[in-house]
Specification:
249 residues; alpha/beta; Rossmann fold; 8 helices; 14% strand
């Protein structure tokens, strides 16, 4: 239900953002950041219903409007339903953040068709079809799309071949969508390195710090600041902002 107080204040007041995979972790941080900036939110989830419900309540307590929509992004029909729900609830869309992702470890010899499809479906196919379904709405508002890739799409890791291929695909997808949807919709990407989140493995973080010139992992604030920068930069499209502390050097 739309909150009449959602007009509120903030530089994104009156705007509507859809963040895929926003019930937990980085997607949740991005959704809350956009709400703090004044946007109303479509919270997408698949298996994290309780977390999504709590996040919707939290955003509404901030005086913003928010709805939670369950969808399996491996299925185009559910992506279409997700965008239809957003349109029905708010009547417009200004921001699409393609954040939903998986991170599947698999050795080369043991990689199955199911693992390959699971990685590509969520990490690459879903952002394309979300953009396709959102484009008519975003064109009306001259909105923006931000895709989340990661440094695996640049460096390539042997234990994560399907993941890295899918994230490399996101980088090219960003560039071609930027040309396809110009001049009405800007499309950019963020490629984070390791971002410290609760529950992450200390060994992975320690290894990343050892290999990184800035000698630290990233913070969620690094990513949310990049989101704001790209949304506010009206002359930037088709670009990938690498947030890795210099790791890819």
């Amino acid at each position: 239900m739309t909150n009449p107080e959602s007009s509120g204040t903030g530089k994104r007041a009156g705007q509507v953002a859809l963040v895929t995979g926003s019930a937990k972790r980085l997607g949740r941080a991005i959704a809350l950041h956009l709400a703090h900036e004044g946007a109303d939110l479509v919270i997408h989830f698949n298996h994290s219903g309780a977390d999504a419900k709590e996040l919707v309540s939290q955003i509404r307590r901030m005086g913003r409007s928010a709805i939670g929509v369950k969808a399996d992004l491996a299925k185009k029909s559910e992506i279409d339903r997700l965008l239809a729900n957003a349109d029905k609830e708010f009547g417009h869309l200004d921001i699409l953040i393609n954040n939903a992702s998986n991170f599947l470890h698999t050795k080369f010899a043991n990689t199955t068709e199911e693992i390959w499809d699971a990685a590509l479906d969520i990490n690459l196919k879903a952002p394309f079809f979300c953009a396709q379904a959102a484009a008519p709405l975003l064109k009306k508002t001259r909105g923006s799309i931000i895709n989340l890739s990661d440094v695996g799409g640049i460096l390539g890791w042997t234990g994560y071949i399907p993941h890295c291929v899918s994230k490399a695909g996101v980088l090219t997808l960003t560039r071609v969508l930027a040309k396809e949807l110009a001049p009405d919709v800007r499309v950019n990407a963020i490629a984070p390195g390791t971002i410290s989140m609760e529950g992450d493995a200390p060994k992975i973080e320690a290894d990343y710090i050892k290999r990184t010139p800035l000698k630290r992992t990233g913070k969620t604030e690094d990513v949310t600041a990049a989101v704001s920068f790209l949304l506010d930069s009206a002359f930037i499209t088709g670009q990938v902002l690498v947030l890795d502390g210099g790791r890819t050097l």
